[in-house]
Amino acid sequence: MADPSPADVERFIAQGLACEHLQVEGDGRHFFATIVSTEFEGTSRVARHQRVYRALGDRMREQIHALSMKTLTPAEFAAQGAPGPAATPTHHH
To answer: Which of 11, 32, 37, 91 has a 20 to 30 A CA-CA distance from 70?
Structure first.
């Protein structure tokens, strides 16, 4: 079976998890995903990763050899520097 492309991995995740933003980079064996979902609200980092693994199902064992991920809620994603007013630093004097 051919190694999946980053676009394949994006599609696999999106099929099982409603994402506000999803970006996957990788070389066919090792991937890095930025995943933003409202489903992550109120959950720990471990629970978020488990949720992504559930979305990937058997593909995680059979096709994807390594997946690093950053899992964020929409508010966390906005706070970390997404374009817009939330990214503007404030100064207190």
So the answer is: 91
